[in-house]
Amino acid sequence: MQDEHYIQRCIELAQKAIGKTYPNPLVGSVIVHNGKIIGEGYHHKAGEPHAEINAINSVTDKSLIPESTIYVSLEPCAHYGKTPPCALKIKELGFKRVVIGAMDSHDKVNGKGKKIIQDAGIEVTSGILEHECIELNKRFFTYHEKKRPYIILKWAESGDGFLDKDFKPSSISNALVNQFVHQLRADEHAILVGTKTALTDNPSLTVRNASGINPIRILIDFDLKVPNNFNLYSNDARTIVLNSVKEETESHIQYIKMGKENFLSDLIKALYKEQIQSIIVEGGSFTLQQFIDAGLWDEAIVIKNKNLSLERGTKAPEFSYTPKNTEPFSDNIIEFYQPDEW
Question: Is 120 exposed, middle or buried (0-12, 13-18, 19+ CB in 10 A)?
């Protein structure tokens, strides 16, 4: 139970950096001596020290380290990247014990970090709160194991199942939900819309009602119908335009050329190549339905205003799943879904 308690603290620390560590995973670390936390840290962003190093640096009396246990939510790295391997630092300092939440499936780690530590004669325990630690890095694990981003579908619909009224932009969700949506954008790596949504709504797809980093904007626009003075082309964030006309990069705008045939497959390959670990698919209805019909999603977030009747407009996607969880947001509700295989 003590191990679970400290790994839970590692998870809490790691969550402080959600949306900020790409392409690295979220990791938290705690150092315990005689039942007392003497150091803790988490990975803040790529290129900066990892969680274990931040935890070690926070220890005031370094002489206690050889008699201490270091807890880490993800297996310590074993390779040289922008920073040296954490496994070697743990070996060098001679911790008494190492407790790992989940193993790292990344090819460059995948058991190598644990082996370095064990070969140094240090006791290692792994698999503590493993499910929770994997859930923490669902984006990272999906990207490396499935070779694609973690995909979240999201839309708002009226009580009678429409996305808009008379095919024109309509306000469906309340201010509280709006804040939730902007935090979601801050937490995820990228956000995607189709041509029709871009032309009709002229969205910015930036983070405004929450704190965080703007996601990469992805626009599906085969014939480049969206004018380049629209909000999606602003310099507030990087924009990737998937189209059938050109392949080039202009400042913060990147055009990736692809055909309509095998589009979803080519889209996923392109996003993987661009190292995009998670994506919110915001619409419109046609785009969302393509992902649903292909079974290509990991979460769906459906906002419902059951008291609102729009009568005519764009129908919400056909989606016959049962929500795993439902949360009230004043007069709106948000339904959270996962595919059946979960």
Answer: middle
Catalytic residue positions, numbered:
52
Cis peptide before 284 (omega within 30 of 0): yes
User: What is the rounded CA–CA span in Å between residue 191 and residue 61?
Assistant: 45
User: Both tokens of residue 194?
Assistant: 């189709």
Strand 248-250 relative to strand 123-126, pairing: unpaired
Q: The whole model's pTM is what?
A: 0.91
| 104 — pLDDT class (breaks 50, 70, 90) | confident
pLDDT in tens, 289-313: 999 999 999 999 999 999 999 999 9
Distance from C-alpha of 306 to C-alpha of 339, rounded to nearest angstrom: 24
